[in-house]
Amino acid sequence: TLSHWFQYLSRFTAIFFRTYPNTELRGIFYFLVHTLKNPANSLHLFLLQELLTKMGGVSSLDDLSLQQLDALGGGDFLRKNILMYSIPAKLSKKAILRLHEILNNKTYILPLLTMIGHISSLSIYYRDQALDTQHTFVQVQAKLYDQAISVFLQLIHFLRLGASGHLFYLQKQC
Questions:
Q1: Which of 95, 118, 107 lies closest to 39, judged by CA?
Q2: Whether 118 contacts 38, CB under 8 Å
Q3: pTM of the prediction?
Q4: Per-residue three-class SS string for the chain
Q5: Are 61 and 150 within 8 A, CB to CB?
Q6: Which of 28, 117, 124, 153 minimizes the number of CB atoms within 10 Å of its CB?
């Protein structure tokens, strides 16, 4: 499981950048790009997931109900109604736009997508000799694979929102 201090630090970081969107955000993504080059630092995927959830308003697909899973099989309208976030008072439109501005830069998005894919493939094919039992190995690797795929899908969903014109609507409101 993830250490509590790292969970709290990631949530604090995401909430801080959501509250203060004019703060320099490139440093966090520079850090993420360079630490995820080493698959041993795959723990930092949680930080990216929290930034997308708290700052971008795109929830993870891990906690879906059966109705939401059924809606994923439907058309675009049904998916948008189920998965697309409405902007509650606690989400900042400026933070969403700022996060999209940073992620639209190919300096950050291409390496992030590549490294997340690399981490997910390594979780299948890499065997760590330090783990004691086969049962522990399978559990750890399955959790890592699930988290990498979840963050990848969350990131793609956030980028699709920008491509679909939803963020242009937010820019007009700001």
A1: 118
A2: no
A3: 0.79
A4: CCCHHHHHHHHHHHHHHHHCCCCCCHHHHHHHHHHCCCHHHHHHHHHHHHHHHHHCCCCCHHHCCHHHHHHHCCCHHHHHHHHCCCCCCCCCHHHHHHHHHHHCCHHHHHHHHHHHHHHHHHHHHCCCCCCCCHHHHHHHHHHHHHHHHHHHHHHHHHHHHHHCCHHHHHHHHC
A5: yes
A6: 124
Query: Do the beta carbons of residue 131 and residue 140 sit within 8 Å?
Result: yes
> d(Cα 8, Cα 129) in Å, to the nearest integer?
30
Phi-psi region of 61 (alpha: psi -120 to 50; beta: other; left: phi over 0): alpha
- Match 């086969």 to its residue by tokens: 134
Structure tokens at 52: 């997308």
For residue 87, what are the contacts with CB-CB under 8 A and spacing of at least 6? 57, 93, 96, 170
Output Rg (C-alpha) for the chain, integer angstroms.
Answer: 17
Q: What is the pLDDT of residues 100-143, one digit of tens each?
A: 889 888 889 999 999 999 888 887 776 655 544 555 567 777 88
